[in-house]
Every structure is written in structure tokens, then in C-alpha cells.
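User: Some background: our group keeps a shared notebook of sequences we're curious about, and every so often someone picks one and asks for a predicted structure to add to the entry. Today it's my turn. The entry only has the sequence so far, pasted here. Could you supply the structure so I can complete it?
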Amino acid sequence: MLSVLVWFPLFGVLLLALLPKSIDANKYARSVALVVAGLVFVWTVYIAILFNPKQVTMQFGEFVPWIKAIGLNYHLAVDGLSLPLLGLNSLLTFIAIWSTDPEVERPRFYYALMLLLNSSVAGAFLAQDVLLFFLFYELEIIPLYFLIAIWGGARRSYAATKFLLYTAFSGIVLLATFLGIVWLSGASSFAYEPLRAIIVGASDTPSGLTLKLQLILMVGILLGFGIKIPFFPLHTWLPDAHVEASTPVSVLLAGVLLKLGTYGLLRYGVGLLPDAWVYLGPWLAIWAAVSALYGTSCAISQQDMKKVVAYASIAHMAFILLAAAASTELSMIAAVCQMVSHGLISALLFLLVGVVYKKTGSRDMFFLRGLLNPERGLPLIGSMMILGVMASAGIPGMVGFISEFLTFRGSYPIFPVQTLVCMIATGLTAVYFLLMINRVFFGRLPDELDRIPTVTWSDRLPAAILVALIFLLGIQPNFIVRWSETQIAALIPYNPRPPQIMITNIPDQSMANASSSIVASSPQIEITE
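Assistant: Of course. Here's the predicted structure to add to the notebook entry:
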């Protein structure tokens, strides 16, 4: 069942490669890609319908022995942490393909890379073997590099090379860290659940990972995934990549690919090195506060609309680190909500900036103005941009508000100062986005923009879908939370900061069900078994 999400997009790649050269490549390649991406999204929804949110252990597991000599197996499964991100990946891939210019050059290669990117990201979210995760994690670098290097802007070669160097270094660090975790823990394979059972003590096999070793390995986890997310000062590749990438690629980069980093922190940082995570919690919260303030301050000073949204992403991704550092049940659920929220909102903003650039030929905030003009401007695009800005700033009734509220509510009892700093950063979100809205959409339309091309319904539809989801999930956030509550409670490490966690009488369980024996709770909740 889960293999469909990995292999069906690759089947689409094969179909694109077999298209006859005599046909209209643009038309048929786009149609094939849309059908494949649409079916993948429908299958993801079907999996969500069958998913049991009350079950602690992984679901729909698929296991095939692969390379026994090194302990590598093809093992896929899904839980409440990965399921929302799978849905986000499938939805935004379909939207990115839909919003691609119908006259894109080399269409078969372009859409094949899009589908390959979708497949590799899905594989990373589903992998239950740390080495298999690494292979998918590295695979997604290839299509993204070509998507930036071939279809990017004037400095695309520089941006693509910079992205490649940063993310390749991230992969090297993570591979060394994963090998260290497996070898030092004494595990016989790279399987995630048995490995976690050994480390957290849910297995009879003792682990060789002392706190000192966990701290050393945690440096690799933080550095590797910190580059991917990215956090300050590991962020410098992201603004260049966003500015030079085409709009659909920016949608996937901000909406999905950055979530590989935050997913990795939760799955492999919190999950595999819990003692080190708790020990470093205060420092991680400080890092989150600094990164949030840095991203906000940089966004205020930008002139390019795309760079404003890019630096805003850096600031808002830091809230996920704050929530994860607190390690309460509420804050960890908030981290999942923040990932989904940021994916939808950033995708919407990049889509709308792309439409503005397509119709006006500029993203310069000191040149553009008056685009909200109801007769000669872009009134509907401007209205949706205002809604997207409001969502990013945390206006109640939208998904951005509930995700940030849960983040701050769950983190404040543990890290009050760092949480207040992040609250200041989210308050400043209104500053740089209002500056952008005021400069670009209000005022008198310049003479140079007297004849703006008409925005078609195909340009508006993807953004309208995202706006609807932002409102729907803001009004009913349980659509996100219900998938993750049970699994997140099992992921939380023991946290000695009182009165966070009280664990008593937990019986030994088999290695296959090890995750269900790791129980945690929100403040003032005692769990006994």
C-alpha cells in the first residue's frame, strides 16, 4: 500500500520517457504528470481514511530484506508524525505541477524531475530504516538541483551549486551520525524501532550510548538537519535558492523539502537520542529564538518580495525547534501543526509572488505599487496575498494562529524567556509583511504597469485551494491534531524538568512494539500502566 506513494511517481517518470517525440510534448507531458500526481494525492487520502489515529505503533508496514550484509532492509510504515507530511507532499506536488508554465522548456525532463522529487520525499517520510531514510534523503537532492540549475533565474548556476554543496555536506554529516548511532548502540541492523528500543531502554539489550556519546552524536543530527531546515547561521543557501528557483520549485522547497529537516529532528533527534535532546533543550530553545529574530530582521530589510517570504520561512521554521525543545505533549503536537501550517502558508505566498512576477515582470517592492487597483491591477491576487500575510502573522481563524498558539502555550512553561522572544519575532511578522503589502498593493499604479495581463482561473485556482485549507484548518485544527496525538505521546523523551512527565510501572514489551512502551504526557497528567 505505502509503496504506491514511492513507486507510482516513478512509473509516471517512465511514461514521460516513453512519450513519442512526434506528439506535443508540453501538452501530454503536463497531462501525464497531473494525472500521476493527482492519483498519488487520492491514494494518500485513502491511506489517511484507513489510518487508525489511536494506534501507537507504526501502521501499514511493508518489509522486504534488501542487503543483509550491511543490515539494510526496504521497510516502510506510517504514523501520526509522517502522515500529515505525506499529505502535504502529495498536495503541493500536484499544485506545483498545475502552476507550472504550460510552455515550460524541456517539459518531459521537467515533469519527470517533479515526480522523482515527490517519490524521494515520500520515501524519506515512510522509511523505517535509518539507512533507507538517508538514501531517500540524498536522492531528493538530484531533482531539486536540476530544477534550479536548468529552470532557474539569471544566477541559477550559483544558487544550485550552493544548494548542492550545503545539502551534500548535510548528508555526509548525517550518514556519519547514523553509522555512529548504530555501531555504538550495539544494534544488529539499521531498523528504526529496534534501534530506538535499545537506546531508550525498552529492550533487554543494553545500549552503549552514554549521555556523553549521545551529545556528540546529537551535534551531527543538529548540524545535518539544521542545514536542511535551515537555522541561522546555516541558512545562507536558502534565500539564493528561492530567488533563483521558479515559482513551482519554491512552492515545493518551502512547503515540503524543508520539512525533511524538522521531521528528521523529531524522528531521529528526539526519538533516538532522548537524553541528549533533553539535556540540550535550553540551548536549542535559545537557538530557536536567535534564528527567529534573525529571520525576522532580515525580512524587514529586503527589497525583493521573494526574499521577504524566504527569510520569513527561516523565522517560522525556528518555532518548530522551540516546540520540539520543550518536549511537552502539547508543544510536540504544535510542532507537527506548525510544519503543516508553514507548508500551506509559505506555498500560498510563493504562488502569489510568482503570479505578481509573471504579470508585472518585477518583484521589486520599491517599483511595484497599486496592484490592488480593481480595474487595472491584480485585485483578487492582492486580496489572497493579504489573507496569506494575515495567516502568517497569526491572525485568529487561520491555521497560522492555532499552530503558533499551541507552540507558545506548550513551550512557555518550560522556556518562558525564549518563548517570549519568539513571540516578539512573530509579532514583527506583521511589520515586514505589512510593509510589503503597503508598498506593492496600495498607492497609485505606475504608468509602466498600465497594461497588466489578465490573471486566468488556472493561476487563481491553486492559491484559492490553499486559502480554503488555511481557513478550514484554522477553524477546525483537530483535522491535523487527531492524527498525531497518540504517536507524539509515545515519541516524547523522559523530561526531568518537573512537573512534565511522571512514568510508572511500564512493562517490558517486544521489540516490534517498543514504541508503545515509551509513554509521556502533558503537564499535570500522570500515566500509569
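Suggested note for the entry: Confidence is low (pLDDT under 50) at residues 495-529. The radius of gyration is 23 Å.
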